[in-house]
């Protein structure tokens, strides 16, 4: 399959998605992005970073015949789960691959204590803890009540902390204290934006 691909066999990415269905929150993660729920001001990690330095991932890698060198899977990749990276997914004959695309799932029932969810890539989490990010967003929401602006502030804080990676972050508010923004439409009614 890798030889039929038109992009480099070493190209790959991570993936994290969150689904909110009523009060049910489901997070699926494969890689080093992270989802963090703010519950009464405390960070609740809704995903695990799939890095070779974590004991459970390292054990799985080694059981599949892979190795961890200097914090990297087989000495070359900083994650243990990813989409793509075909060159690392072609293991020796009959062996399972140490790099997998299988996501890990976590879920919870949202309550009135749940304020917001932060979804960010490793450029954020390489330089700040989950609790620190929650504190930055809470402070921003108290000041201006704008989740998009809070996301920008997290990016700026990561840059200030000298992140060396790309930066993507989304803030999704659940708390009723975060005002729903309305804009007028042609008919004179309002719709949320």
Automatic annotation (TrEMBL):
Catalytic reactions of this protein: O-phospho-L-seryl-[protein] + H2O = L-seryl-[protein] + phosphate; O-phospho-L-threonyl-[protein] + H2O = L-threonyl-[protein] + phosphate
Swiss-Prot/TrEMBL keywords: Hydrolase, Protein phosphatase, Signal
A Pfam family that the UniProt record links to this protein: PP2C
Domain PPM-type phosphatase: 1-174
Keyword Transmembrane included in the entry's annotation: no
EC nos: 3.1.3.16
Signal peptide segment: 1-30
InterPro entries: PP2C, PPM-type-like_dom_sf, PPM-type_phosphatase-like_dom
Molecular functions per Gene Ontology: protein serine/threonine phosphatase activity
UniProt protein name: protein-serine/threonine phosphatase
Species for this entry: Musa troglodytarum
Lineage of producing organism: Eukaryota, Viridiplantae, Streptophyta, Embryophyta, Tracheophyta
């Amino acid at each position: 399959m890798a030889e039929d691909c038109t992009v480099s066999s070493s190209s790959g990415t991570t993936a994290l998605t969150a689904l909110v269905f009523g009060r049910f929150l489901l997070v699926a993660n494969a890689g080093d992005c992270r989802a963090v729920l703010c519950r009464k001001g405390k960070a609740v990690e809704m995903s695990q970073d799939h890095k070779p330095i974590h004991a459970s991932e390292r054990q799985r890698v080694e059981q599949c015949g892979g190795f961890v060198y200097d914090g990297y899977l087989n000495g070359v990749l900083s994650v243990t789960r990813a989409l793509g990276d075909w060159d690392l997914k072609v293991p020796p004959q009959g062996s399972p691959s140490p790099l997998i695309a299988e996501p890990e799932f976590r879920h919870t029932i949202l309550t009135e204590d749940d304020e917001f969810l932060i979804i960010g890539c490793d450029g954020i989490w390489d330089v700040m803890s989950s609790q620190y990010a929650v504190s930055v967003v809470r402070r921003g929401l108290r000041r201006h009540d704008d989740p998009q602006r809070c996301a920008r502030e997290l990016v700026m804080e990561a840059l200030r902390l000298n992140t060396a990676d790309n930066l993507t972050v989304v803030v999704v508010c659940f708390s009723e204290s975060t005002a729903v923004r309305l804009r007028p439409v042609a008919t004179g009614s309002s719709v949320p934006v």
